[in-house]
Amino acid sequence: MSSKRTYPIGTPGQKWTMKEKAEWLAQLTIKRSYLDEVVTKIDALRDRFDVSQYGALSYDTEKYPLFVIKSRPWNAQKPTILVTGGVHGYETSGVHGALQFVDEKAQHYSQYFNILVAPCVSPWGYETINRWNPNAIDPNRSFYDNSPAEESAALMKMVKDQGVDILAHIDLHETTDTDETEFRPALAARDGIEYKPGSIPDGFYVVGDTDNPHDAFQKAIIDEVRKVTHIAPPDDEGKIIGSPVSQEGVIDYPLKKLGLCAGLSDCQYSSTTEVYPDSPLVTPSECNNAQVAAIVGALEYILRQQ
After folding, report:
1. Active site residues
2. 69: three-class secondary structure by DSSP
3. Residue 142 domain-assigned?
4. Out of 15-24, 91-100, 192-201, 258-267, which region has the weakest mean confidence (pLDDT)?
5. Spatial distance between the Cα atoms of 45 and 42, rounded to a whole number of angstroms
6. How far apart are the C-alpha atoms of 136 and 31, rounded to whole Å?
7. What positions constitute the catalytic site (predicted)?
8. Spatial distance between the Cα atoms of 287 and 13, rounded to a whole number of angstroms
9. How far is Cα 106 from Cα 89, in angstroms, rounded to an integer?
């Protein structure tokens, strides 16, 4: 689908000041509960996994604690796998797919790997169903030193504090219709640039690393996911969200240059998943299943290489 929209906040061609950011923030409301929908599921995993709090968002430290889930037994001799969800809090299956993977699959794969899962990096964004944090900053463009996003800074510190090398990082995301109806128009307005309408692909795809693409690894993810949902086709120009398709269902970004979550480490393998939850062909459960399948496809590929 595609759309065209003039954003109601700000003056076209002028970057937002604190005034416009405050106006944007004032229109947002809490739409769902992080504590009820996410933290309760994390707590239910404590009998099988090590769960620890690695921080809390300053917006409300009681409402927005940050949790990491670790497999047992942790063994420094095993390679470590990092799974992240909810970097964009509104992307629901990223959060619940990560939790479903832990519940259903992580114990099996812990015989081969240390597994580190941060299921909801941006809980304020989860509750307000938003891409940004309250400061109108996108956490998934903020994974670099002295990050302006506390969500990103906290996750980077947590990963560093583990004192291990990350072999593979799977970052779970969605591409939604609201990317075009709300979030990209808001981005253009915030930055004082012209909004150019794009299109949302109907189906699953992944984003690899331009500087370290690992085509066979990405293909293994796509092949596993196609068992549970359909793969996004390219548009008439052979692109997905404006980027050339390198193979079926795969595009590549320079992860570190863009400050993306999947580029926070120097891991050998990385992939950012993109589920399309607004497709008439899928259910919320199938979206979660696609996220789980993506992680499984990645891990099975790595096991075949050993």
Report:
1. 274
2. strand
3. yes
4. 192-201
5. 5
6. 18
7. 274 (proton donor/acceptor)
8. 37
9. 23
Residue the block writes with tokens 């079926």: 248
Q: pLDDT digits over 106-143, tens only?
A: 999 999 999 999 999 999 999 999 999 999 999 999 99
> Do residues 227 and 182 lie in contact, with contact meaning Cβ atoms separated by under 8 Å?
no
Determine how many CB atoms are found less than 10 A away from the CB of residue 2.
Answer: 11
Q: Are 293 and 206 in contact (CB under 8 A)?
A: no
Residue 192 is part of which domain span? 18-305
pTM value is 0.96
Report yes or no on 136 lying in a domain: yes
d(C-alpha 187, C-alpha 138), whole Å: 9
The reply to whether 281 falls in a domain is yes
Work out how many domains the chain is built from and give that number.
1
What is d(CA 115, CA 133) in angstroms, rounded to the nearest whole number?
A: 27
Task: Provide the CATH number for the domain around residue 64.
Answer: 3.40.630.10
Distance (Å, whole) CA 80 – CA 115: 6
